[in-house]
Please model this.
Amino acid sequence: MINKIKLGFYFFSLVLLTYGCGQNGKDEKRPEPIEITEEMPSIKIIRFENELATKDQSIDTAKIRELRGKYGDFFELWCVQLASIIPPSKRKPLDVEIANNLNQYLKDQYIHEIFMDCQKEFGDLVWLEKELTLAFERYKIAFPGKKIPTIMTYISPFSSNIMTMDSMLGLGLHFYLGQDYKYYPSLQLPMYMMKKLEPEYIVNDMMKGWLDSEFLDDSTQNNCLAQMLFQGKILYAMDVLSPETHDTIKLGYSPAQLKWANEHEEQIWSFFIEQDLLYNINPKVYLKYIHDGNSTNGFPKESPSRLGAFVGWHIIRSYMQEHPNTNLLQLFMEKDAQSILSKSAYKPKKNTLS
Model:
């Protein structure tokens, strides 16, 4: 039984790799890196797409039975929701149905070419195994008792870049072939997303996707402040789990946009207060300050998007500084947004341009 399935786009990064590490600068509210005292076994990535990357050999019913036995619910999910080779139905598809449809799918020239391009770009994922191992070592310390997911890669042009189900975290390699990849323009994605289709953004997107799947509770995200603080928790968790990742990548900002946000933190916070946004319960009003985009409505064109998340992040940093004995798990279990704000003693930095 599949308890939870989440498919999504987690493109919250914008800058080139040269901005990726070691340039966050000193911040008195930035959490100290977690000291890893006990190494866990290295994460090994399961390469599901390698089972299918063939054009000349047909997949028979025996192979389908093998795949169903080996990959269980994930294989069914891939067939129905990710690759869409089987239409949704209450009836479990027969092995012969899947085999016939899968063979047609894999022999399509467009599909085969993308498979081969992913094989060429991501033939060796040792680097990713190392980075994920380090991040999940910190995760294990930061969230005592929480499970470490099985990591699996897949290709399904072009449905989702990240998926989670139960104890599995999946990565769609087809969304990380570089922003200039020849087939991306046909997706008609906005420019702020196109610029993020790069391999160096994978770890951030995967960790963000897993945190969302573990902690997102729609029943508590009932106003703007709650949304801001949940996004702030995710960003703060990324501070702790991946301190090597630059703030621009975590936020999806260019260096100039991050500079603008930092210089106008007081002005941004004042905007939310003056516009009575904090306790607004209309998603159509407040989600434009939470979601990704080219800029934020109501601010100059040079402003970045997600300014609600940006402020939420700084509130959470203040809250954790005020409560040094609170661990990450306790932070995520605290659902009272008003209590967090009150106890954070948040005071935005003065506008450095004034």
